[in-house]
Amino acid sequence: MSAKILALDTATENCSVALMVGDKLYVRSEVAPRDHTKKVLPMVDEVLKEAGVTLADLDALAFGRGPGSFTGVRIGIGIAQGLAFGADLPMIGVSTLAAMAQGSYRQHGASHVACAIDARMSEVYWGRFSRQEDGSWSEVDAECVISPQVLAEQLSRDELAWKAAGTGWDAYSEALAELTIECEKGDVLFPDAQDIVYLAQFELAKGNTVDAEHASPVYLRDNVAWKKLPGRE
């Protein structure tokens, strides 16, 4: 894979940008929960200058499509769409949960990852992923928003050793400790654009891109998100 892909993510407290040019990776990342709009575009400029390329040189623009903070997801997709429109680039939405799975593999070699992001309202955004031989990831559990208590009741025991990722494990430690699966504590708390850009390669190779006007977020709690917008009550 030798594509040129820019990725950005603001779906959680972490603000990150990554640019892949062939086998080289240029990254910026900072935990800045209230400063995404100030941080992300300067990060984009920095990685493009460091790599010596322009937006017009790229093959695609990837973004963290959620789940995550409603505001953060909207900021990320809005900025990504603006960049993609201006440079006429196809877009690739990547799951923030899958990105954390890839981050757990990158940092710890984990091949089976259980991801839980604190979704507030006593719920988590949940998903489990297993790494395939080609380096891609398959969903074991479909992404969902669920209370830890209900998750503990519904989850079936298996023989795999899962690596935990995401903020939900600390936020609901007592309830998630009741899960029947074997889970090892992990330190990947947030998705990162360098993992999003890695996953985006597979989607680009399969032709899974959309035009900028059709790029869409994944909230998993759509009704609540849309009710917060003016005119959507």
- What is the CA-based Rg, rounded? 17 Å
Helix- and strand-based class?
Answer: alpha/beta
Overall geometric form:
globular
Strand content is 25-35%
- CATH structural fold name of the largest domain: Nucleotidyltransferase, domain 5
Number of domains: 2
Search tags:
10 strands, disordered C terminus, 35% helix, 8 helices, Nucleotidyltransferase, domain 5, 233 residues, alpha/beta, five-stranded mixed beta sheet
Explain what you see.
With about 230 residues, the protein is an alpha/beta fold. It has two domains: about 5-95 and about 190-225, ATPase, nucleotide binding domain (Nucleotidyltransferase, domain 5), CATH 3.30.420.40; about 110-185, Nucleotidyltransferase, domain 5 (2-Layer Sandwich), CATH 3.30.420. Helices cover about 35% and strands about 30% of the residues. The chain has helices spanning about 35-50, 70-85, 95-110, 150-155, 170, 175, 195-205, 220-225, and strands at about 5-10, 15-20, 25-30, 60-65, 90-95, 110-120, 125-130, 135-145, 160-165, 180-185. The protein has a five-stranded mixed sheet with strand order 3-2-1-4-5, with helices on both faces. Helix 3 (about 95-110) packs across helix 7 (about 195-205). The longest helix has 18 residues, at about 70-85. The radius of gyration is 17 Å and the shape is globular. Pfam families: TsaD. InterPro entries: ATPase_NBD, Gcp-like_dom, T6A_TsaB. Belongs to the KAE1 / TsaD family. TsaB subfamily. One of its GO terms (biological process) is tRNA threonylcarbamoyladenosine modification.
